[in-house]
Amino acid sequence: MRHLLALIFTLMAVVNLTAKDFTVVIDAGHGGKDPGAISANKKIYEKNVTLAVALMVGKSIEENHPEVKVLYTRKTDKFVGLNDRARMANKANADLFISIHTNAAKNRSARGAETYTLGIEEERTERNLEIAKRENGVILLEENHEKQYANFNPDSPESYIIFEFIQSEYVKESIHIAQYVQENLAADANRHDRGVRQAGFLVLNATSMPSILVELGYISNAEEAKYLASSSGQKKMSQCISRAFDKYYADLLKQSAEASAANSSISRENKVKNEPEETHRQTATSEDAPVFKIQFLSSSKKLGKGDSAFKGLSPVEHYYDKGLYKYTYGASTNYNEILRTKRKVNEKFKDAFIVAFIKGERVDTQQAIALFKKNHP
Ligand SMILES: [Zn+2]
What we know:
The chain is an alpha/beta fold. The protein is built from 12 helices and 11 strands.
């Protein structure tokens, strides 16, 4: 019986999460006037490799998961700015962002695949910074980049300091899928495994969801360039990414099922305990409901009330996590309402994002949203 109940809860959660319309954005790096990196013999362009692989990855996800919404930042050979790629994903409220690139180095023997997430400052090496600079350099091709990217200079290491912590909410999930991608590229596509790395990629920085950037291989290496340009190689590499997605998505469904099974048993207990009064029951339910807030600022120092760093937002709350004071604005058990608040906050803090709490404890935002949607069909 217990197993049957568990199974029913699992099925309920699966149905619920699939109804949630998981959205993945597939981002083919470069395009149009921006060729990306070019092979030594000048015949193979990064933009063509990334587009071919991106289209195959998307197609395979569409086929394997009809309930998943697949969006592409480009489906043709056209130029798309980095901010616009991220904006597209944010606007769609996407759950995952996969950016596809090929690497290049002066050293022609450099080879191998690596997958990046935005990361923690101390884990960024000089070399990773070089790669981030190269990929970010594309903004200089964008017509109004001075305005679009404010004071960001892709060549200045100082510019990367602004990336600190912005994506930290999603680092765990991002690394989770990045590891699957790397495992598959090494095992199935026989790529030299350069590992999961972290660096300040502009396109990942601007997205507010788990995000990875895959460098499939070195286009500057003659042997790898041939593989990158071959249709068999492209097919293999795309399978590595789409199978990584399969595993990641399956893990999410499982987590969500476990979370809602746990939640169901909590609310059943509460109902039993609070049997006598209707009001109690309502209180019990609302205490279990996730409270959504907008996190807009992190600081290693505690800031005073009305600090100018809050840019006039008031009242603000904070919680302490991993050595940082994290400042939030707004609070609602209604996810739709907090989405509206977020839009307002984003006018002042463009990278502000939604966080969730249950009984004052910080919980996984994606799971909290799933829970909210389950209780508000
Ligand atoms: Zn690139």
